[in-house]
Amino acid sequence: MDKSNDTVTSTENVVKNVLPITDNNTGKVLIQTVSTSKTYLYTSYIISSSKGQNVVVDPTEMPQKSIVDIKPVAICSTHAHPDHTDIDYLKTYQVPKILYEKGKIYTRDFRIYSIPSSHSDDNVTEDSGNVIIVFEVDGLRIAHMGDIGQNSLTREQVLQLGNIDIAFMQFENSYSDMTLENEKGFRIIEQLNPRIIIPTHYFDSTIPVLEIKYGQIKEYNNYLSISKEELPSTKLNVFRVLNNHIY
């Protein structure tokens, strides 16, 4: 049999990138996961104003600019640990930055300021190298609590934080001596009392505990778009913003 004309055809499945949204046209504030890390999926976020300005907070193993250009107008880090600060990424953009110190940034759409905190105890000092960062945008007040390891917030921190609508908060982190058993994370978030909690450091086993304490968790794939008018009427609602990006 002459097989010279036989044709073998193979089809490969091509996996397409799933990238963060760089141009926000939702008309609302957009909150997105962004890290490429497979270990720390939920420490890094892009916060976008309704008019399209982007801010990056706690960049961790960030996608290269050639893959996705986020075009941030500011970059902020709560502390210098590599699961919250990507040094190479910080060098990529010459924009205003708050890097684990007390500071303020004003852009067209954002008012950003930081508050000294402590990573592992109650010793809060101006030069601790650990801060909480607050973002005011489109009527929302958003706080990234970083790896705060205090037993509770100080009175001064509570006053400086004010009424927070959305808080990124850790609940289990051995480096901050924060566990479900010692309940440090619960005490802090209940002092803060935001409308929405977006958990950062936690395990799968943390999820049912959060649901017992704060009710059913809502999940969002890669991003949450929200306006002031759409905030829950009650406090302490847990929203998981998943990280299913493909770079």
TrEMBL record:
<protein>
    <submittedName>
        <fullName>MBL fold metallo-hydrolase</fullName>
    </submittedName>
</protein>
<dbReference type="InterPro" id="IPR036866">
    <property type="entry name" value="RibonucZ/Hydroxyglut_hydro"/>
</dbReference>
<dbReference type="Pfam" id="PF13483">
    <property type="entry name" value="Lactamase_B_3"/>
</dbReference>
<dbReference type="GO" id="GO:0016787">
    <property type="term" value="F:hydrolase activity"/>
</dbReference>
<keyword id="KW-0378">Hydrolase</keyword>
